[in-house]
Write a structure and sequence with these properties.
By secondary structure, the protein is α/β, with parallel strands linked by helices. The protein has 17 helices and 13 strands. Helix 7 links the parallel strand 4 and strand 5. Helix 14 packs parallel to helix 16. The longest helix has 19 residues. Bound molecules: pyridoxal-5'-phosphate (PLP).
């Protein structure tokens, strides 16, 4: 068979899940692949942006600290861009791409997250995959939470040794896997690495770091925590879920990305000095790829400093999160187990009803949020994820709660079982058929 034969439109994710609705509903899903997936948010990054030609309240970007359009940071970046453009430095750090700026950023990160040393990584996803590879070899056993982000799962998939998963945040189950893993390494002569998250990005519940660290009293292992969603949000100063739970010392490899709270790009891992020195010489994504442009490094340093100098950003994020959660909970919506800033809304409904509800929110209530389906969440669940930021206003929150009140009533009445009305369908089809302008610049 030619590989290309597999690439049929029916195999695209949304269509695969909606085949049950038959050809009548097909036009929506053809369009939805450009409307629900790959939507284009336009305008200045912030609490309100333009979608499908209209201003809407955005609950869909991980701009937790509201730094995405910060004027001061923009001015720093413009200056840095004039000085270095996007090219400098050239090459991987190991060979020709090292600068004092990267070291300065690493030192400030170590200070912020209370670790001895830090290594800057180009991207979170790619950095994590490669970090797992650098830390382990074929004799080692990796145990990971089944709810972990794709970057951990994919890093583990590349691992040539044994890998065990435990049920999401189930410490008894983790303990069972630790017993198995301990037997395995007694034979192989390897070591155990546990990987989990500080805050799970979809469900918003924190990893049980405290309980996992306590297991060190019974078992020998090292702990890797991806705190992409806890860095800049958890702990009174935003220094992460480990600090928030009082167990930062028990985390052996603290990993986070600049792509969320810092609204930038790049990532890092912090650990003991000798461990970071070891990783530096074994992490292939950094050794065999061009380093981050100076522009990003300088901006990340300034972002970190700005963030640390403005503790009110974390306070405001949490106030907004609390208000939004409390308003939605009063409507009787299921917000799961989130104990972080993230606000998940679980709807026990079909794909069609969930998709229609999201469309209704966007088209008729000017509220933009993202939805997730199986396999991100269990089959039969439709998850709407709302991401508060420190720059959302009370007005945004009140309007959103009103919108959810209206769509919940419609959902309860079975309204979304119907096909979308003609005007809404046309709006979606028009949106999906807009051609790109000939030239962006
Ligand atoms: C938990 C987690 N880890 C890693 C990443 C990837 O980070 P980056 O966007 O820097 O590649 C993400 C982004 O979605 C994430 O949610």
């Amino acid at each position: 068979m030619d590989l290309y034969e597999k690439f049929t439109p029916e195999k695209t994710p949304l269509r695969m899940l909606t085949v049950e609705h038959g050809p009548l509903y097909d036009p929506l899903y053809k369009a939805a692949e450009r409307y629900l997936l790959y939507p284009r948010l336009e305008g200045t990054l912030g609490n309100r942006m333009i979608f499908n030609g209209k201003e809407c309240i955005v609950w869909s970007i991980n701009n937790y600290a509201g730094l995405a359009s910060n004027e001061y940071l923009r001015s720093v970046e413009i200056k840095a861009c004039k000085e270095w453009s996007i090219a400098f430095p050239m090459g991987a750090r190991m060979f020709s791409g090292d600068t004092f700026a990267q070291h300065e950023l690493e030192a400030e990160l170590s200070d912020f997250v209370n670790k001895e040393a830090t290594l800057l990584l180009n991207y979170g996803y790619q950095g994590m995959v490669s970090l797992i590879d650098a830390l382990t070899d074929i004799k080692d056993v990796i145990i990971y939470d089944a709810g972990c982000h794709a970057c951990i799962v994919d890093g583990v998939r590349l691992h040539a040794g044994k890998r065990l998963s435990y049920l999401h945040n189930d410490i008894d189950n983790l303990e069972k896997q630790l017993v198995r893993a301990t037997r395995m390494i007694e034979k192989s002569g390897g070591a155990i690495l546990i990987a989990t998250e500080g805050v799970f990005g979809m469900s918003g519940d924190q990893g049980k770091l405290k309980e996992i660290v306590q297991l060190k009293e019974k078992f020998t292992f090292r702990l890797l925590v991806d705190d992409a969603h806890g860095f800049g949000t958890m702990g009174t100063d935003g220094s992460g879920a480990g600090v928030h739970q009082g167990v930062q010392d028990g985390i052996d490899f603290y990993f986070a990305t600049f792509a969320k709270s810092m609204a930038s790009i790049g990532a890092f891992v912090s650990s003991d000095k000798h461990a970071v020195d070891y990783i530096r010489f074994g992490i292939r994504s950094q050794m065999f790829a061009k380093t981050l442009p100076m522009l990003y490094v300088v901006s990340n340093l300034e972002r970190l400093r700005y963030f640390r100098n403005h503790p009110e950003l974390v306070d405001q994020l949490w106030e907004n999160s609390r208000k939004l959660k409390s308003g939605l909970a009063k409507l009787g919506l299921d917000l799961g187990k989130s104990d972080s800033q993230i606000v998940p809304v679980y709807l026990n409904t079909s794909v069609k009803e969930g998709a229609n509800l999201i469309v209704d929110l966007r088209e008729n209530y000017n509220v933009f949020c993202s939805g997730a389906l199986y396999p991100v969440v269990p089959m039969g669940i439709f998850l709407l994820r709302l991401i508060p930021t420190s720059i959302h206003t009370d007005e945004d929150i009140i309007e959103t709660i009103k919108a959810f009140k209206a769509v919940k009533e419609k959902l309860d009445q079975g309204f979304y079982k119907n096909d979308l009305d003609e005007a809404t369908m046309n709006s979606i089809l028009n949106y999906a058929s807009i051609e790109a302008p000939e030239k962006i610049l």
